[in-house]
Amino acid sequence: MWLLHANPDGGGRDFSDTNPIRTPLTWPSDGKVDLDWVRNLMSVFDRSSKDLPPTDFPSVLPVPVFDSLVLTASKILHKEPNCLTIDPEHESSAAAAAASSVVVVGDLHGQLHDLLFLLQDAGFPSENRFFVFNGDYVDRGAWGLETFLILLAMKVFMPHRVYLLRGNHESKYCTSVYGFEKEVLTKYGDKGKHVYRKCLGCFEGLPLASIIAGRVYTAHGGLFRSVSMTPSKRSKGKKNRRLSFNSEPKPLALGSLEELSKARRSVLDPPWEGLNLIPGDVLWSDPSTKPGLSPNTERGIGLLWGPDCTEDFLKRFNLKLIIRSHEGPDAREKRPGFGGMEEGYTVDHVVESGKLITLFSAPDYPQFQATEKRYKNKGAYIVLEAPNFDHPKFHTFEAISPRPQANAYYDYEDVIDSDEELDLASMVTASEETS
Fold first, then answer.
1. pTM score > 0.85 for this model?
2. Does 169 participate in catalysis according to the annotation?
3. HEC states along 240-257?
4. Using CA atoms, how far apart are residues 40 and 18, in angstroms rounded to an integer?
5. Per-domain boundaries in the chain
6. What's the pLDDT band for 21 if we cut at 50, 70, 90?
7. Catalytic residue of the set 109, 113, 169, 395
């Protein structure tokens, strides 16, 4: 079937330029995804979100095409290190390096149409334009699947220009509570469990952090603890040496990039222990106005770190900037001493060596709210430019309006906001059911 080209109303965008939209989507015969394929995917998802019920999604993206895309992307992601090294000046040609830039994007939470606008506004990835997405692609919004698949398509198209980090919502527990699992089951029906399992497997491959141009650290939640490692007393010889982990070193100390590189990121949910503590911290931690490092009791997982820890981390690794995400307007209204998320970003710590920034790219969030009064926050993305890449340029944008009509895939009236007071027992149960 062919859908004729037309400009969508309501502030959307047609990404197919002058070409007709081609549906159902098919996998390229040579297995190579190009820009036209990505643009058509975006146009089809944009149109289907407005014209088709969710249950018709397989007529747009058949399961075999989904499988090919996720398998191809997963193979790329699983080969990447926990902490990516992104060096635009060395990865680009000499001519492109001088004009190279890195676009950093925060939480998206299934807000498809805002992602489409962001890509229109920032431009597509190219030889001299890199993208780093900072996690939380799914949950709460009605189009988490489309959002995630567009990013996977971009990754397959330009694997060395598009980098996808993991957020705390790329997990079995969060997706079972905040809507993504139900969204997938609704859209794919009897094939939904298969599609959901493939998504979880892809989540396991998402890297945890990045270092941009040797100056900027990005991660979804932020900093992480050191996990002490000592040889077991029963071990003899190098070959049979086993490591035992002190999961709660006292006092808590900041971890190193070397420790981050050795963490086991394939664990989707708790139990967080040993080296698994580091991914838990990277995905769930928050900054604090108080100095020091302490357990994040509000979330029940991860850490709180103060400005002194930001300074220590920046100075120790010769960095200038930390960009993290993880907190939208609902979380920030409960955090006295920190700025709100009205503009899509906040500068949380300013220290001698540099700054800590929280970046949130989902405007008018969350999509579904139980109260008449909405936050009406803007979204934002950051552009880092050559030669130093450590002077962030903030680009803010309003939500696309009106959004297409959609139903929530979770009980947003009863489900807690901002991932606080998590039911860790349920999280552990979810993890055991997966393994």
1. yes
2. yes
3. CCCEEEECCCCCCCECCH
4. 11
5. 35-225+250-433
6. confident
7. 169
